[in-house]
């Protein structure tokens, strides 16, 4: 482990980033303490995230998809150290940041930022836009005047009117509020943004604006994204690679096209076939795999492959032996019987 | 079956060929400290038995207020216009008469099942109570009917699950339980307000499949209120697109998706990322701006500030909903629907 220091390495521009991964996640796990029963005894810990590993190259977008409770948001929060992982490591730009103290984390805070789902509840209603966007800069030691100037620049960059800098969040629509959240995340000049369902709370007619904005910013600023969402169409749109999570683990990860065109894990296939298409003729023609039951609780994961109780292909081995991620059809799949 | 109903007198007002639900000139106004808010304005639509009308809209479109007004659940709002259920006028009925119809003739399900399930009673008790009130059946018969219904909506081990409380059910199972309760008294019309929005996509697929099966078995008329055009494409026969409290466009589902007439509908369809697209072909065609505020309605077309087609006329004169094209039931509220100007802007 690296020794915590607070002499920050200079933040390299994305152009300088070599072939090595910008972000490298290994066996990341988060176990929340089990709930206390009436007798005061604690239940087994809930393994919300259970051994997640992936790499992210500079300038790349990794989509993280899955249903509620699959651990995608918990994973995102561990990447920015809003949550302390139980085990595993997060290496950013060659530096293990998993166990740095809050103080030693400060340079990381500059390089890695987060965008949240609900724009209004993630902005302090008592602060002006100027204050909201410049806060991260003041923490990094900027003067108030410089921070305000930078905030106005950022507002323009994300498509807001800089003259509105002294307004409060409630004076903005949902889409505009999300632009404020994005401007705040950009204030420190980050290289990686973890976006947790950044468009799902927005009106349909506004979602495309924010998707376009994030794509433009990625290009202009050379950003990398971990884009967490349940909407598979949006994820396909923004991602280079996609990881599908189920009950705390990645069940399939690969290049967007491979994964969407020929999903190998039965869960990925079912997930894709369940998405309603805005095309009535295609909907009627379509063959859907309708899964039985609900996703199981991470407090009581099934033995073997955690997907086996809902899996149309499950065999005996799936009930007893947990499949590990291995290469199949040029991506990684955790299934004993990948493919058709 | 417990569902045969002897207490229901034949309806004098019912005419043989009346549609299941006919809404004409529906208007809903809320009085607020900041002045009256016109949430729904001059809305017309019809739902036939065995058919699904999809009502699509975003926040503030008036889609949910419409459903509450049809059910007579619009507390504190002024409602005008006519709502006829199988020919019987519902506006002006007393609360007592309405509550007899709710459940028995029409029922509603919501996004959050916990809003209609009581936490203190078992799921079985609640469904049975509902059956007892509407059919005056005995406890045992009502209880049997509750278990039957839970089985019908696909809840495994219905007899055991009937004895559990709502919090012991998963999200998907709760939604099934709410559907069981809504359908226990065999209503003819089901209003579903974003019933799958809070559910995961694999569970949503189950619930939509269930509703389709129940519709087929019972000839149920369904009003499906949603913001999701994918859900509409999957379940609706006819579609009403709402914007700013009014109908923007009405059409059968195939026509709406193949040939949208209103710039808003077209804009929505163009702006959506598609599963079938590569996703690497330039930016999405986003609609600029945000949905309008009902507190400060614009004098002309409420979509005009965001519309690529809009001309001076659009900001001054509100476009009425007029028949469009040759197909019956097709209408659009746009001064330039189908005009060369609109075609130009869509390119």
TrEMBL record, chain A:
Residues 23-272 form the ABC transporter domain. InterPro entries: AAA+_ATPase (IPR003593), ABC_transp_ATP-bind (IPR050319), ABC_transporter-like_ATP-bd (IPR003439), ABC_transporter-like_CS (IPR017871), Oligopep_ABC_C (IPR013563), P-loop_NTPase (IPR027417). PROSITE patterns: ABC_TRANSPORTER_1, ABC_TRANSPORTER_2. GO terms for molecular function: ATP binding. SUPFAM superfamilies: P-loop containing nucleoside triphosphate hydrolases. Keywords: ATP-binding, Nucleotide-binding, Transport. It holds the Pfam family oligo_HPY. Belongs to the ABC transporter superfamily. This is ABC transporter ATP-binding protein. It comes from Streptomyces toxytricini (Actinomyces toxytricini). The lineage of its organism: Bacteria, Bacillati, Actinomycetota, Actinomycetes, Kitasatosporales.
């Amino acid at each position: 482990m690296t020794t915590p220091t607070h002499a920050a390495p200079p933040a390299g521009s994305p152009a300088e980033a070599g072939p090595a991964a910008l972000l490298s996640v290994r066996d990341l796990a988060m176990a929340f303490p089990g709930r206390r029963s009436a007798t005061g005894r604690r239940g087994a810990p809930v393994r919300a995230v259970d051994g997640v590993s992936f790499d992210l190259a500079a300038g790349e977008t990794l989509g993280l998809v899955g249903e509620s409770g699959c651990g995608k948001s918990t994973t995102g929060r561990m990447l920015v150290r809003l949550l302390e992982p139980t085990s595993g490591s997060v290496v950013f730009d060659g530096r293990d940041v998993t166990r740095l103290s809050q103080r030693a984390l400060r340079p990381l805070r500059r390089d890695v930022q987060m965008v949240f789902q609900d724009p209004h509840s993630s902005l302090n209603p008592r602060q002006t836009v100027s204050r909201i966007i410049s806060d991260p800069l003041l923490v990094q030691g900027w003067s108030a005047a410089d921070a305000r100037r930078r905030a106005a620049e950022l507002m323009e960059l994300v498509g807001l009117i800089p003259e509105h800098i002294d307004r409060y969040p409630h004076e903005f629509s949902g889409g505009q509020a999300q632009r404020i959240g994005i401007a705040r995340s950009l204030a420190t000049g980050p290289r990686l943004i973890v976006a947790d369902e950044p468009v799902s709370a927005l009106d349909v007619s506004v979602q495309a604006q924010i998707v376009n904005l994030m794509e433009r910013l990625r290009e202009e600023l050379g950003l990398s994204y971990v884009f967490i969402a349940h909407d598979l169409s949006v994820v396909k749109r923004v991602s280079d690679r996609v990881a599908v999570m189920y009950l705390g683990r990645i069940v399939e990860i690969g290049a967007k096209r491979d994964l969407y065109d020929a999903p190998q894990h039965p869960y990925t296939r079912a997930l894709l076939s369940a998405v309603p298409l805005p095309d009535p003729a295609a909907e009627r023609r379509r063959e859907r795999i309708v899964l039985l039951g609900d996703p199981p609780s991470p407090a009581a994961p099934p033995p073997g492959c955690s997907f086996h109780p809902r899996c149309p292909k499950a065999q005996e081995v799936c009930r007893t032996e947990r499949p590990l991620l291995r290469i199949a059809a040029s991506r990684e799949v955790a299934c004993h019987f990948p493919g058709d | 079956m417990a569902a045969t109903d002897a207490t229901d007198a034949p309806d004098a007002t019912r005419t043989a060929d009346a549609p299941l639900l006919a809404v004409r000139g529906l208007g809903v106004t809320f009085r607020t400290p900041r002045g009256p808010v016109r949430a729904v304005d001059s809305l017309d639509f019809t739902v036939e038995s065995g058919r699904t009308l999809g009502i699509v809209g975003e926040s503030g479109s008036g889609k949910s207020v419409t459903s509450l007004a049809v059910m007579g659940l619009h507390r504190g709002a002024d409602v005008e216009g006519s709502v006829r259920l199988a020919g019987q006028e519902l506006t002006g009925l007393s609360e007592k008469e309405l509550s007899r119809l709710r459940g028995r003739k029409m029922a509603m399900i919501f996004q959050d099942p916990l809003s209609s399930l009581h936490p203190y009673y078992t799921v079985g008790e609640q469904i049975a109570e509902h059956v007892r009130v509407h059919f005056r059946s005995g406890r045992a018969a009502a209880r049997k009917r509750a278990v039957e219904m839970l089985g019908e909506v696909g809840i495994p081990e219905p007899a055991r699950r009937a004895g559990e409380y709502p919090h012991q059910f998963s999200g998907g199972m709760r939604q099934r339980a709410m559907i069981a309760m809504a359908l226990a008294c065999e209503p003819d019309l089901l209003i579903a307000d974003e019933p799958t929005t809070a559910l995961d996509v694999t569970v949503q697929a189950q619930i939509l499949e269930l509703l389709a099966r129940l519709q087929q078995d019972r000839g149920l008329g369904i009003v499906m209120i949603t913001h999701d055009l994918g859900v509409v494409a999957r379940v609706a026969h006819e579609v009403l697109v709402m914007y700013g409290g009014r109908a923007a466009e009405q059409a059968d589902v195939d026509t709406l998706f193949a040939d949208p007439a209103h710039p808003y509908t077209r804009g929505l369809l163009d702006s959506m990322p598609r599963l079938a697209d590569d996703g690497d072909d330039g930016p999405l065609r986003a609609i600029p701006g945000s949905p309008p505020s009902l507190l400060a309605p614009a004098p002309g077309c409420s979509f005009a500030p965001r519309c690529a087609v809009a001309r001076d006329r659009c900001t001054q004169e509100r476009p009425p909903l007029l028949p469009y094209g040759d197909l019956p039931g097709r209408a659009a509220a746009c001064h330039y629907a189908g005009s060369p100007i609109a075609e130009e802007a869509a390119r």
